[in-house]
Protein backbone atom coordinates (compact mmCIF):
# COMPACT_ATOMS: atom_id res chain seq x y z
CA UNK A 1 0.00 0.00 0.00
CA UNK A 2 1.16 3.55 -0.76
CA UNK A 3 -0.54 4.99 2.33
CA UNK A 4 2.22 6.61 4.38
CA UNK A 5 0.36 8.10 7.35
CA UNK A 6 -2.91 8.10 9.26
CA UNK A 7 -5.98 8.08 7.00
CA UNK A 8 -7.27 11.25 8.68
CA UNK A 9 -3.91 13.02 8.34
CA UNK A 10 -2.54 15.42 5.75
CA UNK A 11 -3.62 14.46 2.23
CA UNK A 12 -5.65 11.66 3.81
CA UNK A 13 -2.44 9.90 4.84
CA UNK A 14 -0.80 9.87 1.42
CA UNK A 15 2.07 12.24 2.19
CA UNK A 16 2.85 15.94 2.65
CA UNK A 17 2.81 17.01 -1.00
CA UNK A 18 -0.47 17.17 -2.94
CA UNK A 19 1.12 16.07 -6.22
CA UNK A 20 2.82 13.06 -4.64
CA UNK A 21 -0.29 12.13 -2.67
CA UNK A 22 -2.48 11.98 -5.76
CA UNK A 23 -0.02 9.78 -7.60
CA UNK A 24 0.25 7.40 -4.67
CA UNK A 25 -3.53 7.20 -4.28
CA UNK A 26 -3.87 6.31 -7.96
CA UNK A 27 -1.25 3.58 -7.61
CA UNK A 28 -3.30 2.17 -4.75
CA UNK A 29 -6.50 2.45 -6.77
CA UNK A 30 -5.08 0.53 -9.73
CA UNK A 31 -3.04 -1.83 -7.53
CA UNK A 32 0.12 -1.26 -9.55
CA UNK A 33 -1.61 -2.21 -12.81
CA UNK A 34 -3.22 -0.26 -15.69
CA UNK A 35 0.01 1.71 -16.00
CA UNK A 36 -1.03 3.91 -18.94
CA UNK A 37 -4.37 4.81 -17.34
CA UNK A 38 -2.78 5.63 -13.99
CA UNK A 39 -0.17 7.80 -15.71
CA UNK A 40 -2.80 9.68 -17.73
CA UNK A 41 -4.81 10.43 -14.58
CA UNK A 42 -1.59 11.36 -12.75
CA UNK A 43 -0.50 13.82 -15.44
CA UNK A 44 -3.90 15.53 -15.39
CA UNK A 45 -3.86 15.62 -11.59
CA UNK A 46 -0.50 17.39 -11.75
CA UNK A 47 -2.07 20.05 -13.99
CA UNK A 48 -4.72 20.57 -11.29
CA UNK A 49 -2.04 20.77 -8.58
CA UNK A 50 -0.11 23.37 -10.59
CA UNK A 51 -3.30 25.46 -10.73
CA UNK A 52 -3.84 24.98 -6.98
CA UNK A 53 -0.36 26.29 -6.24
CA UNK A 54 -0.51 29.15 -8.78
CA UNK A 55 -1.50 32.77 -8.18
CA UNK A 56 -4.93 32.08 -9.69
CA UNK A 57 -5.48 29.01 -7.50
CA UNK A 58 -6.30 28.67 -3.80
CA UNK A 59 -2.71 27.83 -2.80
CA UNK A 60 -3.63 24.44 -1.32
CA UNK A 61 -1.16 21.62 -0.74
CA UNK A 62 -3.52 19.40 1.25
CA UNK A 63 -6.37 17.47 -0.36
CA UNK A 64 -8.45 17.91 2.80
CA UNK A 65 -8.80 21.60 1.90
CA UNK A 66 -10.32 20.87 -1.51
CA UNK A 67 -14.10 21.32 -1.52
CA UNK A 68 -16.81 21.82 -4.13
CA UNK A 69 -16.04 25.53 -4.39
CA UNK A 70 -12.42 24.70 -5.20
CA UNK A 71 -13.59 22.50 -8.07
CA UNK A 72 -16.03 25.17 -9.28
CA UNK A 73 -13.15 27.66 -9.36
CA UNK A 74 -11.07 25.16 -11.35
CA UNK A 75 -13.95 24.74 -13.80
CA UNK A 76 -14.07 28.52 -14.26
CA UNK A 77 -10.31 28.54 -14.90
CA UNK A 78 -10.63 25.79 -17.53
CA UNK A 79 -13.53 27.62 -19.18
CA UNK A 80 -11.29 30.68 -19.50
CA UNK A 81 -8.53 28.55 -21.05
CA UNK A 82 -11.00 27.17 -23.60
CA UNK A 83 -12.26 30.66 -24.42
CA UNK A 84 -8.68 31.89 -24.98
CA UNK A 85 -7.99 28.96 -27.27
CA UNK A 86 -5.17 27.52 -25.15
CA UNK A 87 -7.11 24.38 -24.20
CA UNK A 88 -9.53 22.21 -26.15
CA UNK A 89 -12.83 20.98 -24.73
CA UNK A 90 -11.79 17.32 -24.71
CA UNK A 91 -8.64 18.07 -22.70
CA UNK A 92 -10.58 20.13 -20.18
CA UNK A 93 -13.18 17.38 -19.71
CA UNK A 94 -10.43 14.78 -19.29
CA UNK A 95 -8.75 16.93 -16.63
CA UNK A 96 -11.97 17.25 -14.66
CA UNK A 97 -12.63 13.50 -14.91
CA UNK A 98 -9.12 12.74 -13.65
CA UNK A 99 -9.51 15.17 -10.73
CA UNK A 100 -12.74 13.36 -9.83
CA UNK A 101 -11.01 9.99 -10.00
CA UNK A 102 -7.96 11.07 -8.00
CA UNK A 103 -9.96 12.85 -5.31
CA UNK A 104 -12.13 9.74 -4.89
CA UNK A 105 -8.96 7.65 -4.50
CA UNK A 106 -7.55 10.06 -1.91
CA UNK A 107 -10.74 10.55 0.09
CA UNK A 108 -12.18 7.06 -0.17
CA UNK A 109 -15.55 8.54 -1.18
CA UNK A 110 -17.15 10.67 -3.90
CA UNK A 111 -18.49 13.47 -1.74
CA UNK A 112 -16.37 16.12 -3.48
CA UNK A 113 -16.58 15.89 -7.26
CA UNK A 114 -17.81 17.49 -10.47
CA UNK A 115 -20.99 15.56 -11.25
CA UNK A 116 -20.86 16.17 -15.01
CA UNK A 117 -17.67 17.65 -16.48
CA UNK A 118 -19.36 18.39 -19.83
CA UNK A 119 -22.28 20.23 -18.21
CA UNK A 120 -19.94 22.07 -15.85
CA UNK A 121 -17.91 23.39 -18.78
CA UNK A 122 -21.10 24.23 -20.67
CA UNK A 123 -19.78 22.68 -23.89
CA UNK A 124 -19.92 19.27 -25.52
CA UNK A 125 -16.74 17.75 -26.84
CA UNK A 126 -16.54 16.70 -30.46
CA UNK A 127 -14.63 13.62 -31.53
CA UNK A 128 -14.83 14.46 -35.24
CA UNK A 129 -11.31 15.05 -36.55
CA UNK A 130 -10.84 18.50 -38.06
CA UNK A 131 -7.03 18.49 -38.33
CA UNK A 132 -5.17 16.15 -40.67
CA UNK A 133 -3.21 13.51 -38.73
CA UNK A 134 0.57 13.45 -38.66
CA UNK A 135 2.37 10.54 -40.29
CA UNK A 136 0.55 10.52 -43.64
CA UNK A 137 3.82 11.36 -45.38
CA UNK A 138 5.74 8.09 -45.75
CA UNK A 139 9.05 9.95 -46.03
CA UNK A 140 8.37 11.57 -42.65
CA UNK A 141 7.75 8.11 -41.15
CA UNK A 142 10.96 6.80 -42.72
CA UNK A 143 12.93 9.62 -41.11
CA UNK A 144 11.45 8.71 -37.74
CA UNK A 145 12.35 5.05 -38.28
CA UNK A 146 15.91 6.00 -39.24
CA UNK A 147 16.39 8.13 -36.13
CA UNK A 148 14.92 5.47 -33.82
CA UNK A 149 17.19 2.83 -35.35
CA UNK A 150 20.22 5.10 -34.86
CA UNK A 151 19.17 5.44 -31.21
CA UNK A 152 18.99 1.63 -30.97
CA UNK A 153 15.26 1.81 -30.34
CA UNK A 154 14.38 -0.83 -32.91
CA UNK A 155 11.35 -2.06 -31.00
CA UNK A 156 9.80 1.41 -30.96
CA UNK A 157 10.57 1.70 -34.68
CA UNK A 158 8.66 -1.56 -35.16
CA UNK A 159 5.66 -0.13 -33.28
CA UNK A 160 5.70 2.97 -35.50
CA UNK A 161 5.74 0.89 -38.68
CA UNK A 162 3.05 -1.54 -37.48
CA UNK A 163 0.77 1.33 -36.47
CA UNK A 164 1.23 3.10 -39.81
CA UNK A 165 0.96 -0.02 -41.98
CA UNK A 166 -1.90 -1.82 -40.22
CA UNK A 167 -3.69 0.73 -38.02
CA UNK A 168 -2.79 -1.19 -34.86
CA UNK A 169 -3.13 0.49 -31.48
CA UNK A 170 0.01 0.84 -29.36
CA UNK A 171 -0.90 -2.13 -27.17
CA UNK A 172 -1.80 -4.25 -30.19
CA UNK A 173 1.54 -3.55 -31.86
CA UNK A 174 3.47 -4.46 -28.71
CA UNK A 175 1.57 -7.71 -28.03
CA UNK A 176 1.04 -8.86 -31.64
CA UNK A 177 1.81 -12.57 -32.19
CA UNK A 178 4.39 -11.93 -34.90
CA UNK A 179 5.05 -15.54 -36.06
CA UNK A 180 1.30 -16.13 -36.50
CA UNK A 181 0.82 -12.88 -38.40
CA UNK A 182 3.70 -13.69 -40.74
CA UNK A 183 2.28 -17.15 -41.43
CA UNK A 184 -1.12 -15.65 -42.22
CA UNK A 185 0.48 -13.06 -44.51
CA UNK A 186 2.29 -15.77 -46.47
CA UNK A 187 -0.51 -18.35 -46.68
CA UNK A 188 -3.64 -16.16 -46.67
CA UNK A 189 -2.46 -12.81 -48.01
CA UNK A 190 -4.00 -11.07 -45.01
CA UNK A 191 -3.50 -10.89 -41.24
CA UNK A 192 -5.98 -11.06 -38.35
CA UNK A 193 -5.26 -8.62 -35.50
CA UNK A 194 -6.25 -10.45 -32.30
CA UNK A 195 -3.71 -9.70 -29.55
CA UNK A 196 -3.93 -6.74 -27.17
CA UNK A 197 -7.30 -5.63 -28.54
CA UNK A 198 -9.80 -3.53 -26.57
CA UNK A 199 -13.13 -4.58 -25.14
CA UNK A 200 -12.65 -8.33 -25.53
CA UNK A 201 -12.65 -8.03 -29.32
CA UNK A 202 -10.55 -11.10 -30.03
CA UNK A 203 -10.99 -14.65 -31.23
CA UNK A 204 -13.10 -16.16 -33.99
CA UNK A 205 -16.13 -14.02 -33.14
CA UNK A 206 -14.28 -10.74 -33.73
CA UNK A 207 -12.18 -11.17 -36.89
CA UNK A 208 -10.16 -8.15 -37.91
CA UNK A 209 -8.50 -8.85 -41.22
CA UNK A 210 -5.97 -6.54 -42.86
CA UNK A 211 -4.63 -7.08 -46.39
CA UNK A 212 -0.96 -8.10 -46.31
CA UNK A 213 0.50 -5.43 -48.58
CA UNK A 214 4.23 -4.96 -49.14
CA UNK A 215 4.17 -2.32 -46.43
CA UNK A 216 2.50 -4.69 -43.97
CA UNK A 217 5.00 -7.47 -44.76
CA UNK A 218 7.89 -5.04 -44.28
CA UNK A 219 6.45 -3.93 -40.92
CA UNK A 220 6.08 -7.54 -39.76
CA UNK A 221 9.64 -8.35 -40.79
CA UNK A 222 11.00 -5.30 -38.97
CA UNK A 223 9.07 -6.33 -35.87
CA UNK A 224 10.35 -9.91 -36.06
CA UNK A 225 13.92 -8.62 -36.36
CA UNK A 226 13.41 -6.33 -33.35
CA UNK A 227 11.63 -8.95 -31.26
CA UNK A 228 13.75 -10.19 -28.32
CA UNK A 229 15.09 -13.72 -28.45
CA UNK A 230 12.55 -16.49 -27.65
CA UNK A 231 9.69 -13.96 -27.71
CA UNK A 232 6.66 -14.02 -30.01
CA UNK A 233 6.05 -10.27 -29.66
CA UNK A 234 8.00 -7.10 -28.84
CA UNK A 235 8.33 -7.85 -25.12
CA UNK A 236 11.27 -9.75 -23.67
CA UNK A 237 10.28 -12.96 -21.89
CA UNK A 238 11.07 -11.43 -18.47
CA UNK A 239 9.65 -7.96 -19.28
CA UNK A 240 6.24 -6.63 -18.31
CA UNK A 241 4.10 -4.46 -20.56
CA UNK A 242 4.18 -1.61 -18.02
CA UNK A 243 7.98 -1.72 -17.74
CA UNK A 244 8.37 -1.66 -21.51
CA UNK A 245 6.06 1.35 -21.77
CA UNK A 246 7.82 3.27 -19.01
CA UNK A 247 11.45 2.54 -19.86
CA UNK A 248 11.36 2.14 -23.64
CA UNK A 249 8.27 3.61 -25.30
CA UNK A 250 7.65 6.80 -23.31
CA UNK A 251 11.25 8.12 -23.58
CA UNK A 252 11.06 7.65 -27.37
CA UNK A 253 8.10 10.01 -27.70
CA UNK A 254 10.51 12.96 -27.77
CA UNK A 255 11.96 11.55 -30.98
CA UNK A 256 8.48 11.33 -32.51
CA UNK A 257 7.71 14.90 -31.46
CA UNK A 258 11.02 16.07 -32.91
CA UNK A 259 9.93 14.75 -36.30
CA UNK A 260 6.47 16.30 -36.13
CA UNK A 261 4.54 13.27 -34.93
CA UNK A 262 2.17 13.87 -32.01
CA UNK A 263 2.03 10.18 -31.11
CA UNK A 264 1.19 6.65 -32.13
CA UNK A 265 -2.56 7.32 -32.39
CA UNK A 266 -2.00 9.77 -35.26
CA UNK A 267 -0.25 6.98 -37.18
CA UNK A 268 -3.40 4.91 -36.79
CA UNK A 269 -5.43 7.83 -38.15
CA UNK A 270 -2.96 8.22 -41.02
CA UNK A 271 -3.59 4.56 -41.91
CA UNK A 272 -7.36 5.20 -41.89
CA UNK A 273 -7.00 8.24 -44.18
CA UNK A 274 -4.88 6.27 -46.63
CA UNK A 275 -7.36 3.37 -46.63
CA UNK A 276 -10.24 5.76 -47.29
CA UNK A 277 -8.46 7.11 -50.36
CA UNK A 278 -7.67 3.58 -51.58
CA UNK A 279 -11.29 2.48 -51.16
CA UNK A 280 -13.03 5.55 -52.61
CA UNK A 281 -10.50 7.17 -54.92
CA UNK A 282 -11.02 10.40 -53.00
CA UNK A 283 -9.00 12.08 -50.25
CA UNK A 284 -10.29 11.64 -46.71
CA UNK A 285 -12.64 14.45 -45.60
CA UNK A 286 -10.02 15.76 -43.16
CA UNK A 287 -7.67 16.09 -46.16
CA UNK A 288 -10.24 18.06 -48.16
CA UNK A 289 -12.07 15.18 -49.88
CA UNK A 290 -15.81 15.33 -50.60
CA UNK A 291 -16.75 11.78 -51.52
CA UNK A 292 -19.64 11.94 -49.05
CA UNK A 293 -21.22 14.58 -51.33
CA UNK A 294 -20.40 12.84 -54.60
CA UNK A 295 -21.26 9.24 -53.65
CA UNK A 296 -22.64 8.87 -50.15
CA UNK A 297 -23.06 5.10 -50.56
CA UNK A 298 -19.36 4.64 -51.41
CA UNK A 299 -18.39 6.85 -48.47
CA UNK A 300 -20.57 4.72 -46.18
CA UNK A 301 -19.06 1.44 -47.42
CA UNK A 302 -15.52 2.75 -46.93
CA UNK A 303 -16.28 3.91 -43.39
CA UNK A 304 -17.83 0.54 -42.54
CA UNK A 305 -14.76 -1.39 -43.72
CA UNK A 306 -12.32 0.99 -42.01
CA UNK A 307 -14.33 0.64 -38.81
CA UNK A 308 -13.84 -3.14 -38.93
CA UNK A 309 -10.14 -2.81 -39.72
CA UNK A 310 -9.59 -0.46 -36.79
CA UNK A 311 -11.41 -2.82 -34.41
CA UNK A 312 -14.27 -0.49 -33.52
CA UNK A 313 -17.21 -2.04 -35.39
CA UNK A 314 -19.00 1.33 -35.08
CA UNK A 315 -19.11 3.45 -38.20
CA UNK A 316 -19.57 6.74 -36.32
CA UNK A 317 -16.16 6.36 -34.63
CA UNK A 318 -14.40 6.55 -38.00
CA UNK A 319 -15.02 10.31 -38.10
CA UNK A 320 -12.45 10.61 -35.32
CA UNK A 321 -9.83 9.31 -37.74
CA UNK A 322 -10.77 10.60 -41.20
CA UNK A 323 -13.14 13.52 -40.51
CA UNK A 324 -16.90 13.87 -40.67
CA UNK A 325 -19.49 14.71 -43.26
CA UNK A 326 -19.99 18.46 -43.47
Number of helices: 15
Query: Spatial order of the strands in the main sheet?
Result: 1-2
Alpha carbon gyration radius: 22 Å
N- and C-termini, Cα separation: 51 Å
Helix content bin: 55-70%
Shape: globular
Region (Disordered): 118-137
Protein name: Integrase domain-containing protein
Pfam families: Integrase_1
Keywords: DNA recombination, DNA-binding
Structure description:
The chain is an all-alpha fold and 326 residues long. It folds into 3 domains: 10-121; 138-263, no CATH class; 269-322, no CATH class. The chain is built from 15 helices and 2 strands. It has helices spanning 18-29, 35-53, 68-84, 89-107, 117-121, 138-150, 154-166, 170-175, 178-188, 214-226, 241-258, 264-280, 291-294, 296-310, 319-322, and strands at 190-192, 209-211. It has a two-stranded antiparallel sheet. The mean pLDDT is 90.
Summarize the SSE layout with pairings:
Blueprint: H1 18-29, H2 35-53, H3 68-84, H4 89-107, H5 117-121, H6 138-150, H7 154-166, H8 170-175, H9 178-188, E1 190-192, E2 209-211, H10 214-226, H11 241-258, H12 264-280, H13 291-294, H14 296-310, H15 319-322
Antiparallel strand pairs: 1-2
Amino acid sequence: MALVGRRDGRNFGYGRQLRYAGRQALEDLFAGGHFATAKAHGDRWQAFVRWCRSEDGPGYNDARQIDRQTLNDYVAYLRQQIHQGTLCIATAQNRLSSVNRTLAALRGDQDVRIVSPSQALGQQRSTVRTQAPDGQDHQQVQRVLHTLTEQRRERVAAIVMLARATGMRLREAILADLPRLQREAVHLGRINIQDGTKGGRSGAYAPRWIIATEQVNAALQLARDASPRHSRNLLACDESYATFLQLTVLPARETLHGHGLKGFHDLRAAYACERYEQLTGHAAPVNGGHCYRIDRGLDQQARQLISLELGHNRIDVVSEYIGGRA
